[in-house]
Amino acid sequence: MPAPSPATPASQNTGTARATLRALLAIVLFTYVAQNMLNVSIAPLARALGLREWIVGLAVSLAALTVASLSQFWGRRSIAWGRRRVLLSALTLAMIAGCLFAGAVRLRTAGLLGAAATAVAVVVARGPFFGSAVAAIPPTGQALIAEMTPDERARVKGMAAFAGSVQLSIVIGSVVSSALGAWSILAPVYATPVFVAIALAIGLARIPHDGARPRPARGGSPALAPDSGEPASPGEPATARAPEPARALPPRVSWHDHRLLPWIASGLGMFFSAGVVQIIVGFIVQDRLGLPPQRAVSLTAVMLLANAAGAMLMQLVAVPRLGWSPQRLLRAGLTTAVIALSSLALAPSLPIMAASTFFLGIAMGLVGPGFTAGGSLALSAAEQGGVAGILNATGAVTWIFAPVTATALYGWQPLAPFVLALAVLSASTAVAWAHPRMRAARP
């Protein structure tokens, strides 16, 4: 029998998890930079291409519907199938989305594609294709972090670090979009598939093989001894390595689970408000400041940059040092969000708008880690794949309704989306302060 490997299974699993996490953070960076470039350019681009505002809302809402539908699917399968298979599948869909979006825009600007066909291509690319890709990344990361963090403080720090990497990608995406948009309104669209291709290359090269995988011996190459990672000795028969056993799917988590309901109710208002603001910010910049579409791309990127910078500051710097409980993070974040959203609703100038979105980012930077860590800690270790999917889907559910509702209301009355968002946000704030599970927070 071959000598046992010096690494224990636990240390092997830890090493694989850490290698996967490093690669995953790099994938997050490039994928979300690509998504943010689409988000920054889509509203001004829609007007430049002669598309109606509700097309933008429909595209983002369909993306959110896809995320909500597939988040628990991907989260559970990231454990059963392995993270490599899940992430590579998702990034392939993202590449298709980026190429379809860029191709449709190119044909429309060349006069070779009508408005209706362009609208369909934009909706499909930004909706189900890109939504399928984005649905896989957060639950995969959250389930991995839950596996690596046994206690509340570590879980909060881990979730904050992961969310902070997403915000960092938005900051970078906003800067890149602003620079490219100042040169050409089409440049961010054409750059999107390039960033997705980088993410896909990282996945292929750096995500370890971690699923069940038989390793048959082939002629002319060293065989593997059964249940070993070492070549068979010359005197042993050439046999294939025994396949790793297929892992069963983790338990499915219900949306109605009483352990999760207060966390879902508390987070919904923040996510809904963020969806409303992000989808109409491009229209606000154009209409309140009286700008043409190309100039609006750069200033829309500035607004999103301010929002992401506030969230990143909280998640990467403040939250790990505060040591607050998940409940306390939710309360502080939601209260800040009510004040910031009220200010943005009435902001007459770019500096006040940017400051308001910055404080909305601070609010999200507090709410996000509290929401994901608190919801994760509420369920058992065996349920982490399912709960990661539910938590990611919670934000996506709000985005199903927020963009299309916000754009439709904005076309009717510009203040109407803010009134609706404040109502939903206030309800979530009340839950965070008054629900018995939230009142049980430690100081």
Question: Spans of 5+ residues with little confidence (pLDDT < 50)?
Answer: 1-11, 212-245
Number of helices: 13
Our measurement of the CA-to-CA distance between the termini, rounded to an integer number of angstroms, reads 56 Å
Please give the oligomerization state of what you see: single chain
The profile of the biggest β sheet is:
none
Q: What letter string, H or E per element, gives the SSE order?
A: HHHHHHHHHHHHH
Strand coverage percent = under 5%
Percent range for helical residues?
over 70%
Task: Return the average pLDDT rounded to an integer.
Answer: 76
Please state the overall shape, judged from the principal axes of the Cα atoms.
globular
Which structural category fits the helices and strands? mainly alpha
User: Would you count the extended β strands for me?
Assistant: 0
The radius of gyration over CA amounts to 23 Å
